[in-house]
Amino acid sequence: MTVARHSLQMRIRNTTLWLTGCALAIVTLVHGLAQVASAQAPAPAPLAIPNPTYISIPLEITVNRPAAEVWKRVGKYCDIGEWLRVNCTIISGKDGEFGAVRSIGNEILVGKTELSYTYTQPVREGRPYNLYHGTLEARPVTATTSKLVYTLVLDNSMLADDAARDRDRAQRTAQFTTALENMKILAEGGTLPPAPARGGAPKGGPPKQ
Question: For 15-74, how does the pLDDT look when each residue is reduced to its tens digit (9 = 90+)?
């Protein structure tokens, strides 16, 4: 009985050692394959903008209407033409659907929810791409009130200096603050006053890249 027990213990010990050896071999093999795959993977291309500085410009305004009503009034993709006082047409795709392109800046709709959308602008030949994105959202506050939130994200590293970056931020802030004020008027049932007379393009023009 003692001999049999000893033999069983030896077999268990040998089996355990064998399984441990197999596990170590598998771990070593997987690690080696990962190293080979890593060595074979091509290095990523250098960034077109080596040292980007991404900024966000968040703006908001309170509206005395429920969010759904606000969005119905000013949230269609080409409603921007009314509240930014520029001409807008859908030149590709369908208003409100992913991939729709509007004539203002050739902006592409790249994200949306029930009460928001996000757009970007395409890369222009001979111009550094600043990754410009804008998001417009109607955010519920109470059953009868909401906020319109407009957030811009972009890389301003290609501008000449801090003074130029400050001017750019101020210009964008002023333009989209006016846009939010116009949206509030429209969403609350008002009418925009006549646009001031201007020569050439409307003040500020379409959102720039």
Answer: 665 556 666 666 565 666 666 555 566 788 888 788 899 999 999 999 999 999 999 999
Structure tokens, 86: 């520029």
Q: Which pLDDT tens digit goes with each residue over 61-103?
A: 999 999 999 999 999 999 999 999 999 999 999 999 999 999 9
First to last CA, the chain: 87
Of how many residues is the chain composed? Answer: 209
Query: Are 104 and 81 contacting, i.e. CB atoms less than 8 angstroms apart?
Result: yes
